[in-house]
Amino acid sequence: MEVPRTATNSEHPRFALPVDSEHKATEFRVCSVAAPHMRAFHLSWISFFSCFVSTFAAPPLLPIIRDNLNLTATDIGNAGIAAVSGAVFARIAMGTACDLFGPRLASASLILLSAPAVYCSAIANSAASFLLVRFFTGFSLATFVSTQFWMSSMFSARVVGTANGVAGGWGNLGGGATQLIMPLVFSLIRDIGAVKFTAWRIAFFIPALFQTLSAFAVFLLGQDMPDGNFSRLQKSGDKHKDNFSQVFYHAIKNYRGGILALTYGYCFGVELTVDNIIAQYFYDRFNTMGGLFCILLGQVGSLSASIAVMLVFSVFVQAACGLTFGVVPFVSRRSLGVISGMTGGGGNVGAVITQVIFFRGSRYSTETGITLMGVMIICCSLPILLIYFPQWGGMFCGPSPEGTTEEDYYMAEWNSKEKESGFHQASLKFAENSRSERSKRVDSASTPTNETPPTHV
């Protein structure tokens, strides 16, 4: 869908929200559905939410599924690992796809391609088939990358952190919501007359249909950038079609992306781990239909304390996830998609490693595994202290004494030949608009008058 243009003296399209020189929204109005900015926001978080529901539809029903399929603790652990391991490389690939084809097409395609695995969950009849459907369903979690890329394409520096955090956070709610949705759907189907070993299978059609519909919504109603979709902008010459090798190179050599990937591995990665283990943990430890039912039944004692800790834990985990992707858009303008993919993939790597070490088999009890996971979170979060931007500074020191500007930092990703061809213009605009991220205590360095600043960083 293209944004309607209204003739003005500046010949710029008119938007429902105020925009900067890149036509990115400078305000974030969560109650608005105006195209293209806020519509993209709502499409992105809802579609990501649907993928989360699909990926973690199985854990709340594991007490029934394991009896039906005769799953061992090792089978369940392997399936949980499979659900989050598939998206490791899918997220990196998704970042590349966003850079080359745009977030709308990349997201809709992956959601639609992974939906059949959710439908096939209903016919799983062994540990192997259960593992496979969870593996392929987990690919859909790579839509987180397109969500963050999309927000970074639609919102300016002053609000992009909020947009990324809210879109990612609301999407992540699917992991918690499915702990409520699937037991309720299962109970409803069983109450209608299906036996429990049939009811859990029918229940999977609900998340599968939700995911399918969200894919069509993204494709038909979404738009890649404020001024249009990638394909049209590239054909018209308004957007440069970048060289993948250069995009990948500048992403890999930027150490900040690696640190954010590690940090995300132990906020989002831990969230994925908990989504996989918590329902069965509550069921086995407190002998009820799960944590939610325990709350409803008014249980007290250690269960209440566990739930309280879980709520506090969730708040801090979600805040850490939002913080991480609030930084991602500023690491690289040229390689935004790959940096997003690396960071998002780090979340899945963290989940896989954590589950393999602490929650696979019987080496550790679940209680001990959770405790050791906490220690690992602390250790793997410390490298965030090392992130430093020469134009803005870091946690322990201020900006570079050389007076490095935003233009210096983002222009370093383009060589002189590319600048002569004008390929760097989008990065230049981003540099100008990101100047608002400077601390009030730090004076902005002057912008070079020739618009092609030196490239030292």
Textual characterization of the structure:
The chain has helices at 37-55, 62-69, 73-101, 103-120, 127-137, 143-154, 157-192, 196-203, 205-221, 230-236, 244-252, 255-265, 268-286, 291-296, 302-331, 336-358, 366-381, 406-411, 416-420, 425-433; strands at 388-389, 393-394. Strands 1-2 form a two-stranded antiparallel sheet. The protein is mainly alpha-helical and 457 residues long. The chain contains 20 helices and 2 strands. It is found in: Endomembrane system. Residues 432-443 have a biased composition (Basic and acidic residues). InterPro entries: MFS, MFS_trans_sf, NO3_transporter. Residues 444-457 have a biased composition (Polar residues).
Give me some keywords for this one.
single chain, 457 residues, mainly alpha, Growth Hormone, Chain: A, 2 domains, two-stranded antiparallel ribbon, 20 helices, 2 strands, 1% strand, globular, disordered C terminus, Major facilitator superfamily (MFS) profile domain-containing protein, NO3_transporter, nitrate transmembrane transporter activity, transmembrane helix, transmembrane
Strand order of the largest sheet: 1-2
The quaternary structure here is single chain
Question: Count of DSSP E strands?
Answer: 2
Number of domains: 2
Cα shape? globular
Give the helix tally. 20
CATH names the topology of the largest domain as: Growth Hormone, Chain: A
CATH architecture term of the largest domain:
Up-down Bundle
Distance between the termini: 39 Å
Order of helices and strands: HHHHHHHHHHHHHHHHHEEHHH
